[in-house]
Amino acid sequence: MSLGQWPAHINENDGVLSFNVVQKDDAGEYTCHAKNSQGEIEASVAVTVYELPSFTKTPVDTTAQEGSSVTLECQAVGDPDPHITWSSVDKELPSNEHTGSLYIENVRIADAGSYTCIAGNKAGINWAAATLHVIPSAP
């Protein structure tokens, strides 16, 4: 980009470069050139732009029969790739490392409740919740 030609969301004023509403394309190396009667200097800085996780698949409220198996699905994208974890009533639960899904085998009445999918990366965290309803087996 030529000197002084910045996109509308980037402002340059008295040697300060300001980004308003940072965009993924703003990542890269920026070099400041300064010159006066004493000489010239330049300094470069690498700018990395992280993206907050956003969900491509959120968990949905699900009803399961006691004794059956159930899968709650959750997928997210971001930069860097988000790590997905699940929680329910203050306990962390194991999720499938590759799909982000939570698999509950042999569902019990005690498994009923709210389940939260948490997607996190260097940009921050995002979460989505669903409720599991369990129908008791006939005696």
Give a description of the structure.
This protein is 0% helix and 56% strand. By secondary structure, it is mainly β. The strands form five sheets. The protein has a five-stranded mixed sheet, with no helix packed on it. β9 (83-88) and β10 (91-93) form a beta hairpin.
Largest sheet at a glance? 5 strands, mixed
* Strand runs, count: 13
Low-confidence stretches: none
User: What's the Cα radius of gyration?
Assistant: 24 Å
Summed up:
This protein is mostly beta strands and 139 residues long. It has strands spanning 10-13, 16-19, 28-36, 39-47, 51-57, 62-65, 70-72, 75-79, 83-88, 91-93, 102-104, 113-121, 124-135. It has a 5-stranded mixed sheet with strand order 6-13-12-9-10, with no helix packed on it.
Give me some keywords for this one.
139 residues, mainly beta, five-stranded mixed beta sheet, two-stranded antiparallel sheet, 13 strands, rod-shaped
Please specify the SSE layout and strand pairing:
Elements lengths: L9 E4 L2 E4 L8 E9 L2 E9 L3 E7 L4 E4 L4 E3 L2 E5 L3 E6 L2 E3 L8 E3 L8 E9 L2 E12 L4
